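Internal QA ticket QA-208
Title: Verify multi-chain structure generation after dependency bump
Assignee: T.L.

Test input:
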Amino acid sequence: MKVLKVSGWTIAAFVLPCLFLYVCLVFAPIIVSVYNGMLDWNGIGQSKFVGLANFEKMFTNDSLFWPAVGRTFLLAGFSMLIQLPVALFVAILISRFVRRTGFLVSSYFLPVILSVAVIGQLWKTIYNPAPMGGMINQILINLGLDSWTHSWLTEPKIAIYAIIVVALWQYLGYHILIQFTGIQNIPADIYEAAKIDGASGFKADRYITLPLIVPIFKISVVLSFIGSLQSFDLIMVMTGGGPANATNVLASYMYNMSFLSMKYGYGSAIASFLVVVCLAATVVINLLFNRLDKRFS
Amino acid sequence: MSQSVTLKKEAPVVKVRNKRRVSVGKIAVFAFFGVLLVTQLYPLIWLLIYSLKTNEEILSGSFFSLPAVWQWSNYSAAIESGNYWKYLYNSGFVTIVTMVSIILLASLTAFAITRFRWKYGQVVMLIFLLGMMIPMQATLLPLMLIFKNIDILNTHLSLILPYIAFQTPIAVFILSGFMRTIPTEIEESAIVDGAGVFRIFGSIVLPVSIPPVMTVCILAFINIWNEYIMAATFISSEKLKTLPFGVYSFVSQYSVNYGAIGAFLVLGALPVVLIYFLLAEKITKGMVAGAVKG
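Actual output:
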């Protein structure tokens, strides 16, 4: 006998409580969201079914929507093109040069475990104008670079970059840790064999570490991309999407539409779009990496 | 499962070191590690110093200097004017209730998926996997409407329920991955001895599954303890706020005393940092296991 034979009731007792809660609170809301996306509704009064009008307006006639999508991908781009390569580089260096890795890795990781509410408020303080105690501006003034000082979070052109810096800062340690663990799991005898064949140092990294780290790197890419798509707690804490929508990303735009402008229908339409993009992104990334995997193996 | 097993093994550190090159290169690498260490930790240390300064010291522009007199009064001011203990209690309550519920519900489900003979086990698993890709943000508005209708908006229940729901997929995934590896002989002998399913679950499978349960606990703790958006959306009464939301509202409303704001931020970060100091290795391993599975 391999598995237990039990009655349907027993199975139900084991599975249903969890499944019920899960379906009601995760799946049902998404379906409600798609339906609400077809309403013209402010949450209080009568709702009116308008079909795909919200989606049409969103795609063709909303000057704030595409910039928000653009910023979402900007964040994802910075994360994937800067944060992940840096993390991989650091991970390789750590596994090569450091004997007791615990302290270094867990120190880099520390910001990851802090709440975005704390991180956001901390960096708001750091970005404050110098007369209000802001660290960055005080450093710049002390270095004699007064002209470089900015009101980092209230100037529309730079606010989004100021936030991206924080996002990259907070999660760098996470990606270092993931990739470092990946490198450590590469069997050491592969490196020894390579050494006999004359490949050591960075050559070994190029021909052994990089190909073998691909599956773990994929995890980092998925996390960073999905994280960027969904990122908005940091933005809500630091700027709320302002000044003048200059830091809105998809999710924060959705939140502001739903909860501040009380456009429930329109907010739901954006939410549905977000779900679709998330699902599509996961599928695409997996396909890309499957191809990459095949090429390497 | 194979992945998590390999994760837990201490893989031997790769030794591709070349002893003759203790040189410029190595110094540069360690300098780089140092710079990175400063960028990752200095903001937090700066906050700690900031929280012990007077307003004048903070505004004077000498960001690097230590306070002349360490202003511990900032901390008492912060605790008195913000409801720190209340927030801490709320966060603790919500987190513990959620964690216990997740462990119970997810392990029951994982047990059923891996140990029972029934047709739909894989279907259930698939449903959970699919849900992992659903962004929590998209459910905020519908959840608020649902909670308003069943009249639990602005209660701790309105946080606990979605927290459980959003943590279950990863929990079921990790637990079922582990339970699949438990040898069935144990169960068979238990059945021979006349133990029922619940008995087998409660006194054999669950106790054996402590390691993955710990991983689930760590992931759930970090995610729930730090959660801000749902708390800020579903909770409005002061006395029900959790710590991240409390920190946010204190800092945005209290502007008299900069040091006290810093102190409140430190206090907000403190519980999780303390736990991290105690369990750093377990936490980092748990987070990697969670990421690899997710």
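Spot checks passed. Residues 1-12 of chain B have pLDDT under 50 and may be disordered.
Status: verified.
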